[in-house]
Amino acid sequence: MRVSRLRIIFPVGLFLALFLDGSLSNVFAAHLFKYPYSSVLHLVLLWIIFAVFLDDRNDLSIGIWSAFAGLVFDWYYTGILGVYMVALPLVVYLSRQVKPWLDLNFLTMLMVYIINLTIVEAFVYIWYLIGKVMTSNLADFAVYTLGPTIAVNLALFVILYYPVRQLYLKVS
Questions:
Q1: What angle do CA 82, 72, 55 make, to 5 degrees?
Q2: Which pLDDT does position 135 carry in this prediction?
Q3: Contact of 164 with 124, CB cutoff 8 Å
Q4: Rounded to two decimals, what is the model's pTM?
Q5: DSSP class per residue in the chain
């Protein structure tokens, strides 16, 4: 029973997060994208990190689901295929590699989320530089995009950590 409920809740939550990423970004666009600052919501990444660290038996196909969610994200939100389709499974792989060595508590998951958020944002930045989608320098990226993005997403992590953890524990 545990496996079937978790296998249903994970993709539903993933696509809810995918929908909320775009919807909340649109609703709060005046606050998130106030020139020169740009804060990108990463609820999909948050849900994926929770799944990697709170799924005790690694029953979920998180890598495959994250690639599919990345493809949908690229197709619908960015218009440039491959960015998030590669970045999200990369984060799943890296998180699974470090998971056995970590004590899973709030602060550890917070730090892992910060690191993964930085990896995804840096990956997107480099991808966009190579594709000549943007031309900002590294300092501007760090100050005007990475910093505000980390701040907003850390607030969301703090708000959502305990409810999502309780959901995973209840389903387990």
A1: 95
A2: 78
A3: no
A4: 0.91
A5: -HHHHHHHHHHHHHHHHHHHHHHHHHHTHHHHT-TT------HHHHHHHHHHHH-TT--S-HHHHHHHHHHHHIIIIIS-TTHHHHHHHHHHHHHHHHGGGS--SHHHHHHHHHHHHHHHHHHHHHHHHHTTS----HHHHIIIIIHHHHHHHHHHHHHHHHHHHHHHHHH-
Q: If you average pLDDT over residues 87-110, what whole number do you get?
A: 93
Task: Assess contact for 96 and 41: CB atoms under 8 A.
Answer: no
Q: Which two tokens stand for residue 113?
A: 């989320």
Nearest to 161 by CA among 5, 56, 54, 40: 54
First to last CA, the chain: 9
Placement of tokens 């990697």 in the chain: 52
